[in-house]
Amino acid sequence: MITVQEAKTILSEIPINRRTKTLPIAKSIGMFCAENIASPISVPSFDNSAMDGYSLAFEDLKSEMEISGEIKAGDSSMNKLKTGTAVRIFTGAPIPEGADTIVKQEIVTLQKGKFVVDPSQVKLGEFVRKAGTQCQIGQEVLRIGTELSSGTVALLASLGIQEVKVYDIPKVGVILTGDEVVSSDHELQPGQIYDANGPMLRTVLSQLGIDVEFVEKVKDEAEAVENSIKILLEKVDILILSGGISVGDYDFVRPALQNLGVRELFYKVAQKPGKPLYAGTLGTKTIFALPGNPSSSLSCFRIYVSPFIRKFFGADHAFETQFKFPLAESFQNDSSLTFFFKCVLKAGEIHLLSGQESFNLIAFNQATGLVEIPASNQKEQVFNYYPF
C-alpha cells in the first residue's frame, strides 16, 4: 500500500493532454481560462462621478454657488464647466471639462437655485473616478489557469469581451460491476441490492459539469469485463469503474486492466474507507477503479477523482487542500491507516457523524464533507476538510 499523500502526488504528476474550446462568457462559469487576456480598453474610459452630487473646480469652491447645468449617466456631451459654478451630476456621468471634484448631495442644501455647502467638508478630487482606474488598455486582467466565476463574467463583459477560450471538459465513461446490483426499476430478488453507485457517480460528475456519455453495466465475467473496458477506453479520456477491484473470485477488473496493457500507477491506499483503490494509465487515458461499497466509492471520488478531473480542466493545484479546521471533539487515530470520516462543519469546527461504516449511506445524507485524520495524529490541531 501507498500513503494518501503518495497517491495524490502520483495523480497530480500525470501529464494532461488538454483540449481547448471557445465559449460565450455566460456559459464559462466553473471552467478554467486557457489564455492570458489583456484589456482591449481602459476602464473607465472617461472620468466619471462616483456619487450623485455636484461637480465643480475645487479652486472655485465657495459656500454658495450657482448651479449651471445637469449631467446624467449616459450623457455623451462633455460640456465645459462654467467658471465659478457647479453642475448637478449623477453617478456614472462624465465629469465636465474643468471640474475636478464632486460634492456629494448629502452635504448640500439648495436655496433659490443655488447650492450651499460647508467648504471644510469637501476634499480636492473626492468622488471622481479617473479614466483607467480599474485597468488600462493592454493591461493583463485574466491569467491562464484562472477559474472563471460570475465575477469573471462581469469583468469580461465590462471590457466588451463576449467569448473566452477555456480548457475543455474530459469525456468520462463509467462501468458498473456486481451481478447483485440492480437498478431501482427492478423488484429486488433475494441476494440483490439496488444500485447506488451509478446514480451517485452521475450526480457528482454532473456537479463538475460533466454529462457522462458512456455508462455500462457489465456482468461479473472476465471476458465481459475486459471487452467493456476495451471498448470504452477508445471513447473516453477518463474511465471510472465501480466495484470488482478487490481480490475475490469474481473481481475481474484488475486482471482485465493488466491484459489490456494499462500501466498501474498504484493499487491499494493506506486509508479507510476505500483501501482497494486503483489508478492506471493507457496512453493519454486515465483509469480509476473504485471500491464497490457506496461510501468507499464516494469518498475515493471526492479525494482523488474529483481533483484529477479539475486538473484536467486546468486546475494545476487541485490536489492541494484548501480548508483546515479543528475537531469539535478530540479523536485519536492509533491505526496505520488514514481515516476519511463523514462530518458536519459547523461554526468553524468539524463534528464527526455516527454511521461511518463503508456500506452506510445515512451519514452521507447529513454530511457537509469529509475530514482527513492521518495515522498517529497526536500532533495535529487542524485537519484537512473536503466539502461536498
Automatic annotation (TrEMBL):
Superkingdom assignment? Bacteria
| Catalytic activity, reaction form | adenylyl-molybdopterin + molybdate = Mo-molybdopterin + AMP + H(+)
From the UniProt record, give the pathway where this protein acts: Cofactor biosynthesis; molybdopterin biosynthesis
Keyword Glycosyltransferase applies:
no
Which keywords appear in this protein's UniProt record, sorted alphabetically? Magnesium, Metal-binding, Molybdenum, Molybdenum cofactor biosynthesis, Transferase
- Pfam families given for it? MoCF_biosynth, MoeA_N
The MoaB/Mog domain is annotated at: 173-311
Q: By its UniProt entry, which NCBIfam families does this protein fall under?
A: Glp_gephyrin (NF045515), molyb_syn (TIGR00177)
The protein's name is Molybdopterin molybdenumtransferase
Organism equals Belliella aquatica
Query: What gene does the UniProt entry assign to this protein?
Result: moeA
